[in-house]
Amino acid sequence: MIPSGKARLAGVLGWPVSHSLSPRLHGYWLQRYGIDGAYLPLGAPPASLEGVVRALVELGFRGFNVTLPHKEPLLALCDEVTPEAHRIGAVNTVVIDGDRLQGGNSDAFGFAENLRAGAADWRPESGPAVVIGAGGAARAVIAALQDLGVTEVRLTNRTEARAADLAAALAAPQRPPIRLVPWAEREEALAGAGVLVNTTSLGMAGQPALDLALDALPAEALVTDIVYAPLETPLLAAARARGNPVVDGLGMLLHQARPGFEAWFGRAPEVSAELRAFLLGA
Ligand code: ATR
Q1: CA 191 from centroid of its chain's CA atoms
Q2: C-alpha R_g of the chain
Q3: Ligand 1 touching residue 134 (CB < 6 A)
Q4: Does 282 score more than 80 pLDDT?
Q5: Which residues fall within 8 angstroms of residue 91, CB to CB, at 6 or more apart?
Q6: Which DSSP symbol is given to 227?
Q7: CA–CA separation, 234 vs 256, rounded Å?
Q8: How far out from the chain centre does Cα 13 lie?
Q9: Does residue 128 carry a pLDDT above 80?
Q10: Is the peptide bond before 230 cis (omega within 30 degrees of 0)?
């Protein structure tokens, strides 16, 4: 429906934000459920971040998503931050309650739900997870894999010090251990793995492919990628060709959006094949 003067407002805060799929994603759900609301792209350069956030509160926004480069600065700007967002070190979903900002992070949820929906037969406890990359996305992916109950996380990154920092931040006695694998040994680390995740930008349109021979990977291991443009990255194509189950990265984006939409607009939205097709036609 076309928004009225009473429309509930939300959006995605980032810089730049013009590439974001979130306005179309939330816009699809608003239309599908006939909700009087609007979800807008909110471009805010870093120097304006605090003022823009205050303005959103003043304007009566219900909340907003947060994308690069504001996910980490939002930790300090929120009045309350969930333990999940603290653990991941970033806020991607904010609910405005009166004048209070409640920060959360739904990226680990989105990753886990995408695997649940796309690989119903996969059992996390079946073996170790190999995670390639140690940027912001890796942190949410590793947190999710730990919570899903993989036997261990084998983490490898070109810049090894970054992997060590990430492992130190996420290691906890009651959680699956994180073992650091030297970048040069990443192919050997695939032996016996139950799941392989690419969290780097390699394989994205315009970027080189991830250089990783899959020979040592068990045939039943699940392979997934956080890159979703193209939907089938060279890694996923290679995995599919040798018979591994694969899950593409678009679902993580779709599922991470669910908690925010429900909090702001009052309806739990569904991720459907029609929604995927709509976004891929964008
Ligand atoms: P974000 O925080 O958004 O995830 P990022 O911090 O730039 O983005 O992380 C991107 C990831 O892709 C990192 O793991 C990066 O490795 P480095 O830490 O060594 O930079 C990885 N990456 C990017 N280009 C790469 C390349 N050509 N070869 C190997 N890894 C690469």
Answers
A1: 26
A2: 19
A3: yes
A4: no
A5: 66, 71, 72, 74, 75, 78, 81, 85, 103, 104, 105
A6: -
A7: 24
A8: 16
A9: yes
A10: yes
> Is residue 156 within 6 Å of ligand 1 at its C-beta?
no
pLDDT at 277: 96
> Could you report the per-residue pLDDT of 140-165, keeping only the tens digit for each?
999 999 999 999 999 999 999 999 99
In whole angstroms, what is the distance from residue 44 CA to residue 273 CA?
32
Residue-averaged pLDDT of the chain? 97
Asked whether the beta carbons of 259 and 93 are under 8 A apart, the reply is yes
CB proximity list for 235: less than 8 A, separation 6 or greater: 198, 203, 209, 210, 212, 223, 225
Residue 58 CA to ligand 1 centre (angstroms): 37
Check if the beta carbon of residue 73 is closer than 8 Å to that of residue 49: yes
6 carries an active-site annotation: no
Cis peptide before 218 (omega within 30 of 0): no
